[in-house]
Amino acid sequence: MKISGLIVAAGLSSRMNDFKPLMEIENKPLIINTINSLRKSGIEDINIVVGYRAKDIERCVKNENVNIIYNNDYNNTFMYDSFKLGLEKIKDNCDAVTFLPGDVGFVSKYTIDLLVKEIYKDKSKIVYPVYKDVMGHPPIISSICFDYLLNYNGKNGLKGGMEYFEECSKKIDTPDKFILCDMDYKEEFYKVKHDFENRQILSLEECIYLLSYFHVPNSIINHGKKVKEICEDLSNSINKNKKIINIDLIKSASILHDIKRQEKNHADVGADLLESLGYDKIAYIVRSHMKLKNEMEDVINENTILYYGDKLVVEDEFVDLNKRFQEKLNKYNDNEEIQANIMKKYKTTLKIKSNIISIIGRNEYEKLENKWRGYKDDLFK
């Protein structure tokens, strides 16, 4: 099955008082971000319908290996007319089309992969992404629908045309809020810009929603909450002396670090998942929580804080490091290779602990340990 991408960017952007396709977020024009959304999921045949300021868009995408389709009557037509122009050009060369307006540039790889998998599996006529019960972009439309949509009168736009296939279409839940991007006005643009540029900073509620979406058991969620508490406390104490830890980032990474705990190689699998959702900075930290690169062992950063914090928690309880590693050694006392690996992790963990204490001081560290155990401060004054 060949799935093509169809992007419509022919309009005047009159309500924006700017030209949307070339407005930048993270130093990239929206049209480039939209192309990248499709390409990350392996969609290579990408077609863009242009009209107003066509030459400017062409210059912008000249190195992107995309096909340009012209709507020369852009002043007197609507988005659906541009959609039909594009569909007419590509209909004989694909089995389905992924449709995106030119300003919906931040749909995650996870979402598009999910839709592609569904249309392969189910042969549904149209597959839509849904975030918290609200339908968004992009729909993937089977070639079975092409003739009807090309002959549809355009009432209520593409949405009106696709309603004909409602009974044989499928809505797929995704945790990706960027499927709902709507940027007709400047304030909407600035909101999307802010949300995307701060996408690595997730609230506790957003993290819990993500974990719930992936059916992570409460026991693992509670483990993550305790690890988050420890990592946040350590980071705050470290930053009082040296501002070297991104607190918001470590909070997100620590509560999400075991999102794929029930799978083999869960650190890598979880990191891959988070990357596909667009959380690449969180993923980078999560990937190393089971095994640090050698060069990281001597530094204090978000990766080493999560690695260390995770070693201090079994289920949702703080544990003594010596006791934890001794129990592991006892469990594998007949396997020298596993024991050697356990000892390496133990030495790494002690090295990180020593580096933390060198920054925050032993008294501060002991106060934190007492807090994690649930002891009251006044008992130790």
Any low-confidence stretches, pLDDT <50, length ≥5?
none
Helix content: 40-55%
Intertermini distance: 70 Å
Counted by DSSP, the helix tally is 16
CATH superfamily of the largest domain: Spore Coat Polysaccharide Biosynthesis Protein SpsA, Chain A
Mean pLDDT comes to 94
Strand content: 5-15%
Query: Regarding quaternary structure, how should these chains be classified?
Result: single chain
Q: What gross morphology would you assign? A: elongated
Backbone CA Rg: 25 Å
According to CATH, what is the class of the largest domain?
Alpha Beta
Structural class: alpha/beta
Order of helices and strands: EEEHEHEHEHEEEHHEHHHHHHHEEHHH
Corresponding CATH architecture of the largest domain:
Alpha-Beta Complex
Task: Write down how many β-strands occur, each being a DSSP E stretch of 2 or more residues.
Answer: 12
Biggest sheet record:
8 strands, mixed
CATH topology of the largest domain: Spore Coat Polysaccharide Biosynthesis Protein SpsA, Chain A
How many domains, as an integer?
A: 2
Task: Give your account of this protein's structure.
The protein is α/β, with parallel strands linked by helices and 381 residues long. The chain folds into two domains: 3-197, Spore Coat Polysaccharide Biosynthesis Protein SpsA, Chain A, CATH 3.90.550.10; 204-380, Hypothetical protein af1432. 49% of the residues lie in helices and 12% in strands. It has 16 helices and twelve strands. Strands 1, 4, 5, 6, 7, 8, 9 and 10 form an eight-stranded mixed β-sheet that branches. A two-stranded antiparallel ribbon has the order 2-3. The termini are far apart. GO terms for molecular function: nucleotidyltransferase activity.
